[in-house]
Design a protein that fits this description.
Keywords: Metal-binding, Zinc, Zinc-finger. One of its GO terms (molecular function) is ubiquitin protein ligase activity. This is Jg11260 protein. With 277 residues, this protein is of the alpha+beta class. It folds into 2 domains: 112 residues, Roll (Ubiquitin Conjugating Enzyme), CATH 3.10.110.10; 87 residues, 2-Layer Sandwich (Herpes Virus-1), CATH 3.30.40. The chain has 9 helices and 8 strands. The strands form 3 sheets. Strands 1-2-3-4 form a 4-stranded antiparallel beta sheet. The protein has a two-stranded antiparallel ribbon with strand order 5-6. β7 and β8 form a beta hairpin. The longest helix has 21 residues. The radius of gyration is 28 Å and the shape is elongated. The chain starts with 6 loop residues before the first helix and ends in a 21-residue tail after the last helix. Bound molecules: zinc ion (2 copies). The site of one zinc ion has 7 residues, from loops.
């Protein structure tokens, strides 16, 4: 016996097809639509480089849909933390409760897209300055999908180039010509970057850094500094000259290790190769 499909569902699918073209998938069982899935981005007039968040919406149709509410799943959220995903779920629930008996998929897509457009900012912090991304911040998405304030990224790239030049300066002439050429790298994953630093530099500093109170050395910080120096390893006493082991010289050690190529030594504030990200 052929299963008939509610005319309202057919109409809804046709409308989705007209609006979304190929941007959605229908899972069916014996010709009966069971679920509709679509990847949703914020509205940015199709400018992909301005899309920082996305989520896959899956709407599972109940056997008597639209007489009962479908089940809604949000999968693979990008740039959204759990709190934001829960907020989308809450908005969806409110919509479903108010519209039982009506086809709802397109409206759910609009709710999610509207939400993503409103919070089209990566959630979390810029790992360079540790300030959150807030409205008004100018930030950059790298090809490796890491986000930084453009201002902070420019500072990072300027400093890494300066560090490279200083290290190069320390080498004897014959080694300089063999040194690996400078490359911009992502501060998180070291993926190679190609940014125009002078353009990034024009971005304003992070909004939160402008509003932050000026730095003050508080008693709490003094205590933290004192306790961190208290756990430093004790200074090594000079060994007797008869010892076969060379006496360690912690303060000079960095300059004495043989040159092994750029990017192979741990740089200050950087993750060691192989260390967890
Ligand atoms: Zn920053
Ligand atoms: Zn990266």
């Amino acid at each position: 016996m052929a299963t008939s499909v509610d005319a309202r569902i057919n109409d809804e699918l046709q409308a989705l097809q007209a609006i979304l073209i190929n941007g959605y998938a229908v899972k069916d069982e014996n010709g009966v639509p069971r679920a509709i899935e679509t990847l949703i981005h914020p509205s940015t007039a199709d400018k992909k480089e301005e899309q920082f968040v996305c989520v896959t919406l899956e709407v599972i149709l109940t056997p008597d849909y639209p007489e009962s509410s479908p089940e809604v799943i949000l999968r693979n959220p990008r740039g959204l933390d759990d709190k934001l995903v829960n907020e989308i779920h809450k908005k969806i629930k409110e919509k479903l409760d108010r519209h039982v008996g009506n086809p709802i998929v397109f409206e759910l897509i609009e709710i999610v897209r509207g939400f993503l457009t409103e919070c089209n900012l990566p959630s979390g912090q810029c790992v360079i300055c540790l300030h959150d991304f807030v409205n008004g911040d100018v930030f950059t998405k790298t090809p490796c999908y890491h986000h930084f304030h453009s201002h902070c990224l420019s500072k990072h790239l300027i400093n890494s180039k300066k560090y490279y030049d200083e290290e190069l300066e320390k080498l004897p002439n014959w080694q300089r010509s063999e040194a690996i050429p400078y490359k911009q790298t992502c501060p998180v994953c070291r993926c190679e970057l190609k940014f125009d630093v002078s353009t990034l530099e024009q971005a304003p500093p992070p909004v939160d850094s402008i509003n932050a109170p000026p730095f003050r050395l508080t008693d709490e910080l003094r205590e933290a500094k004192a306790s961190s120096s208290a756990v430093k390893p004790p200074k090594v006493e000079p060994r007797p000259s008869t010892s076969v082991e060379p006496a360690p010289e912690p303060e000079r050690q960095q300059c004495r290790v043989p040159y092994r190529g750029f990017n192979r030594r741990a740089k200050p504030g950087r993750r060691e190769r192989g260390a967890p990200r």
